[in-house]
Amino acid sequence: QVQLVESGGGLVQAGGSLRLSCAASGRTFSSYHMGWFRQAPGKEREFVARISTSGGSTSYADSVKGRFTISRDNAKNTVYLQMNSLKPEDTALYYCAAGRLVTGPMRYDYWGQGTQVTVSS
Asked: Which of 31, 39, 43, 45 gives the lowest tally of CB atoms within 10 Å of its CB?
């Protein structure tokens, strides 16, 4: 069992920055590849970013590439999403997800409750 808790969301002006955190329970954090997803009102949940177990490999959605940075600190069981140059279209509920290696690549087993990010113009 793994529990994920997101934090760091809030109301931000367009062009501003925000850093999201996702804290994971347990002592096997380094065994999970992690991802960030978001869901805007009336829209389907979409992929934002992912990071490998070691943090050596990352991938981003085209919509956030160059603006967002995903990172992880395995010693703290935490994954981060640094969001810069925020746009109103970034407004969404952001979810953290964890995937077991045995489950397969780009597949996630656990999800957090989400943290709201609202970007005003």
From this structure: 43
**Cα 80 to the center of its chain, rounded Å:** 7
Is there a contact between 4 and 110 (Cβ–Cβ < 8 Å)?
yes
Three-state SS at 102? helix
- Mean pLDDT computed over 30-46: 96
89-107 confidence digits (pLDDT tens)? 999 999 999 999 888 888 9
Query: Which residue type sits at 82?
Result: Q
Nearest to 50 by CA among 65, 63, 62, 60: 60
Cβ neighbours, 10 Å, residue 85: 13
Number of alpha carbons in the 13 Å side-chain half-sphere of residue 121: 5
Helices (H) and strands (E) in the chain, counts: 0, 11
Mean pLDDT of 23-32: 89
Nearest Cα to Cα of residue 119 among 72, 67, 70: 67
**Spatial distance between the Cα atoms of 65 and 3, rounded to a whole number of angstroms:** 28
